[in-house]
Amino acid sequence: MTSAPHVDQLARRLAPAPRSRRATLGALVGGLLAASGRGRARPALAAPASQATPASAGPALDPETISNIAQALWLPAATVDQFPAEVQQRIMAPANSNAAFGERMRYYLQNLIDYPDSFTPDYTERYQTLIAHAATLSAHQSYVYNNFLGADKTRDYDPIPPRAELRFPQANGMSLGTQTGWYFAVGSARDRAGIEYGIELMFFRSAILPPPIARHHGLSDTENQVLELQLAISVAGERHYQAAPVIIAGTTGLLSFATGAIGATLGRNAFRQLDPATPFPLQIEARGWDQTGSTPVELGLDLTFTTGRDYLLQGVDGCTPCCAGVGTLYYSIPNLELDPNQSTITLDGAEIALSSGSFWFDHQWGNGLGGGNARSEALRAAAILAPASLGGWDWFMAQFTGNRQLTLAAIHAGDNERFYFQTGPTAPGTMVVPATGKLMDETGAVHELTGTLTVDQWVKSETTPDPALYWPTYAWYPDHWRFDLTAGAPAALASFTMTPIVAGGQAAFFANGAQYSEGAVILHDAAGTEVGRGFAESVNYADTFLNKLALAGLPVTVDMAAALAPVTPSLVLEAESALNAATHRDEIADELGLCVGLFPASS
Hints:
By secondary structure, the protein is an alpha+beta fold.
């Protein structure tokens, strides 16, 4: 997977103010030249309480939380009294109550109001609206609330270093002090009858609160996390099965994270490194339920990988990007080989033994996945004047015959905006975008790739793995891809296509309400010869804002949508930012010079 935090917009030339506002801005800048205060300095965070007072347990857990816990334990129809006694004790603890989640979120939002970042839009009204609706929150609702935070949501997390300098095996463990991160395994496999499957398992981690706020409330790093399960299996030529997301909070006691190793558990689901000294053998185990139709379909996997290739550092030595405390760190392990003696999948209650398969593993973590403030005041001021990032991307992995693997990404850009959020009766036309990535050749050498991606077929997303929670979007998603690589690839790989192994799309939902598409593809060279397998991912093609309101427990109304709409910087803030940019050009240039993976020339 890949991501592009809003900080990447700083790589572009600062855009002038809109013409209709330029004269007003000029007058304001002139009036501010003699001002002594050009921004809002933030006081220190309130000192952590030595012993926070727990919230009352409140009412019984809500049905959705109970359902998530039951699915995590592989007991989809269970009630609380059917859970093991030790699980009952943990999940009914005060810290896991809806009252406690609401109390912690209100405290966090009030802290953001009381101590605003400098050179940041004023989110006071937005946060007051959220506080008014946060008397009680489920873990899921707290998670979705983070969708509605402003650019200040990145502060107080462990900063991303200016250089990746990834050290293994330490980097294999999840970094719980950062805002988000994930383990991700995708690939293609065959059973003993030769039937082909595309398989995805992801553990998506998110901190509910910045670490100092969590400690103030007596939470450990693990208790402050939510972990989300994404599980899918496609049967080639038949259909795509997508389990409904399962989301579990650390306060349930059902999460664990390994230190210095690939390892995390979500109830009975797991990424598990079997040898503490090396990533392999690696076991992944999960179960979920596709609720697209009237009868849920159980799907599961228990896979063991015996070997993989060397670590592939994405971006610049693992930075994608690293800039002023935000960005992400990212590495991959290509060509994970399936152990045919210890690998099965489950579909609709039937266990299927797999005979072969090749997979891809990603680990990515950081701050500002959906945008957010840099730790530099000068860069925050510059960002106010820069064009907003659209967010979203297309990501691909390809594993060719001959032990050659590559990864490519195309970040959403404004000149292709007409292809995003399309729901009309007619598919969008042909989309052509720049793509960059890396190739690991048969010797293990890594080559930088540049070229173009052409999308010439589309598919409409009309289904959902859980219609009660995640609404159909009817958005158009890419469904056939052609790559033309102009640098870094041998002639045999310079042009190839990707075709999904199933018709009808492979769309899914994150528990935060965002829809994405993820699925196995067949690789063909320019002559049409089959040359391997891969996976294609498309993010931010559907507008799910109203669905996110519902998932957060907020009213789905015009007034609420307006209250949580993007906040436009005020004229005064734009003027202050323009003044800061004019008087701190050297500082901005120096700080941008320290950023890694931000400029095309450095990636």
